[in-house]
Fold each of these.
Amino acid sequence: MEIFKYMETYDYEQLVFCQDQTSGLKAIIAIHDTTLGPALGGTRMWTYASESDAIEDALRLARGMTYKNAAAGLNLGGGKAVIIGDPRTDKNPELFRAFGRYIQGLNGRYITAEDVGTTEEDMDLIHSETDFVTGVSAEFGSSGNPSPVTAYGIYIGMKAAAKEAFGSDSLEGKTVAVQGVGNVAFTLCRHLHEEGAKLIVTDINKEAVQRAVEEFGAKAVDVNEIYSQDADIFAPCALGAIINDTTIPQLKAKVIAGSANNQLQDTKHGDLIHEMGIVYAPDYVINSGGVINVADELAGYNRERALKRVEGIYGTIEQIFAISKRDKIPTYLAADRLAEERIARVAKSRGQFLQNEKSIISGR
């Protein structure tokens, strides 16, 4: 991998390598763009096959956070960190404290949070060395478990997508096929059930499925049958890349709206479902409730305020549909355009401000 060429292609600002021999820390912090504000993104701990894979993952995820934070309307840029190691065996307090010192050294350019392989306890250790961390324990002002808020955002975004597809945002009587019934999806099912939606669910965890059947009267189906159900809405809430050549021909739903990341296996699949008239709520927009929630911690967490901001996902989804129609492009591209336009406006405003400052200083 030619690192500088990759960074230049996608306009990354900074890549930081962190090493601590005593604790065994080997970490990478990628900062993609700070036009809107400090870079916010979680720290992932993973057993990467190579250092090159770890670098590429950090860079890819950081760029994704730029778009996610921008589309969510947050005054935050995009960044991400990865720690190379097995989260089951390689963790120790010194490792996370050392990592916290590296974050502190960036003086607020990067703010971290939980991600795959890291926990609230890990964030507390990082917090012992820096304030530039979210998702810590409640005693330090955390927002707590993000799953319920993420689920609420999915629910709100799904209503916006339903309005686009059916002319009304009411989900009463609508059939929703939910793929995966983990923490986020189970709470989503509760919201849907309370509004009077009919649920079809699947998961490799049979206990989770049975719980949804008992509590919400959901219909359980095999994991391979979820795509072909007679449903109004398909909610992917488990694996990524599930919108692909195999699954698209099976879909009967008019709306795709769920919490899973990277739902499109390839951009061509976003083009295809657009051509078919399926209303797709882009994943990184509709599942942004979690990052909106933790971002509120930076101002001193207020749950009512955070939920109000999460409700803004409805309007953001509407904006994406409007851009899709305006520019005659699929919604996955419209989401990117929304984020890019916001960044461009702020960059232009900042450039004009700096130009005015220079003019004042020079006496012109």
Note: The first strand starts at residue 14 and ends at 20.
Amino acid sequence: MEKFYTSLGLMSGTSMDGVDASVIRSDGENNYEPIFDKYFEYDEVIYSDLLNLRDKINLIKDLTSNSYQIRELERKITLFHAKISKEIIKHSGIDVDLVGFHGQTIFHNIQEKISKQIGDGNLLSSLLKKDVVYNFRENDILNGGQGAPLAPIFHNLLVNQNQIEKPVCVLNVGGIANITLVISKNNEDLKSFDVGPGNCLLDEWVRRHTKMKYDVNGESSSIGKTSEVILNQAIDNFDNISNQKKLSFDIKDFDLSFVKGLSYEDGLSTLVDFTAIIIYQSILRSIKIKENEKLLIMVCGGGRKNLSLIKSIRKRLPKNIFLKVIDDYKIDGDFIESQAFAYLAIRSMLKKEISYPKTTNVQNPCIGGILVKNY
């Protein structure tokens, strides 16, 4: 019988606004139990520092020229993660065996074979007196992979443990949108990749025009009017041929220039439809099913709360493809990524693979993460 471990997963995504924290119990294989989930918002100083730093880093050389700022912010980020982890452990009474520490991505460029997450795993382990797994992406990249997406094997576990009928396409709409096609229990059968922008263009447009961080429930975009001319031109310009070779994206692969002349609401509406079309076209192109076959798309991530985006995707799908939010299956769609990294930490500690050729394009099934032992 497999041993079960209690693992705390800490995930901060491309929105850079805070940390999702989850505690799960799992054997690192076919079983998991969610125990605790909570979101912790960054203070305004960390949030603005992260956005400013990301704006400065466009090339590898920028990592060197901004090294002092990166080190200072890495320490702040790590201290924040330590503080919330201690709070979770103290107030919940949960004694965790290890911590999965994703860190904050500030640069991802697969052509240059680099994905940089800031977060000091050694410092976090020292502060918490716990084993910590961090730097999940590097080994995959060193072995020919693209370092992302890494959640697919957890998507597989979710689908199979909850006995959801397959085939299932798990659509995660974070800053970047990615899909995982689950057809069996076998991790090697998974097919996964980033499809394009998720929330990143929408959130950036909101930040530029308001003091808000995102369009709550898609309300502003719902009263805007899409510019069909600009939308069609933007879709034509989206380089699908080269992008098909790319399994992972960075938010800097996309820009807002095509909507800059529109009003706030019309720009949002146009960006919603642009994002929706890229997502639905990618799903149809990559998942070949016959007209009489059914396919379920389960949506997780923050984008599932943007009702305008969900409506725009749904209205374009063929009648045999059904789109539901993952919460309909009594799974909390806000914490899939943080639970995933809690699960990946267990697998990393046990020297089990976390990425596969059809999920990241890695040459062979690959272990990942660096384990810092608390001696």
Note: The mean pLDDT is 93.
Amino acid sequence: MHTHGGGGSSFNDADTAVAVARITATHRAHGTTTMLASLVTGPIDEFDQTISALAGLVATGVLAGIHLEGPWLSPVHRGAHDENLLRVPDAESVDRLMHAGRGTVRMVTIAPELEGGLAAVRQIVGFGAVAAVGHTDANYDMTRQAIAAGATAGTHVFNAMRQIHHRLPGPALALLEDPAVFAELIADGVHLHPDIVRFIIESPSRPVLVTDAMAAAGADEGDYKLGALDVRVSSGQARLADGTIAGSVLTLSDAVRYAVHTAGVPTEVAVRAATQNPADMIGLVDRGRLAAGNRADLNVLGAGLRVTATLQAGRWVTCVGD
């Protein structure tokens, strides 16, 4: 549900078709059968064009939809987003980008405390997309207001948001205490301590394992771009020059293994967080669980929960390198 790239390519790349082919092939080789294309903040004219190009690939079934991570994010918790490209969620820009997707934008990350933020949450939900609270300086009460306005998800909870304090509980507590909220988490040993991984998964919210992968996932370490920003990938970590985490090189099968083997999450719970919960989050009723009439997607797991083969839409895919 939250992947920016892989195989050396990014969904923000100019050659959309080539990028999508590389990214989906990379993550499919590690067991991912369904994917949203997540975009990092860019100039709004380029954003418009990229969304439109990706929408065509959603229509063909290559992608399940588009996730806009930006441009309506908090400068205080911008993470690896160019501060100069962030903006408040005015009704016109929201309308423009949602229409560019022609119904394929399935999820939007937004900081609800920004001017017009709550109205934008309602606007996004009105388009039939999931409004996710993330990259935010919202306090507990504002987050509760966003949920009341229709937000149903938290983007990589604890990362790029105001932290929990015993007098100022912040957005994470509001998200994790609500059983109607889907809580994204990045289980890679970099973004979250393993006890926090387990804490999120055991919370009343519905946990969703995501990768937040950037172009270096499944590719060599070195120098990359994430949107407009330079990223150095070294020792399995993607960071900006100032040390800010800039996505990950994670695959979803790695996330499941980390949750089980390092964080101590029961296997069936970790698998649900990578399959059924994310499908439910964006309303994909034909996948995410094994049931008669659903799309025939499944993974065969061998020793150490490693993917040995994948069935995607009824076609066997041999996994390489996992």
Note: The chain has a mean pLDDT of 95.
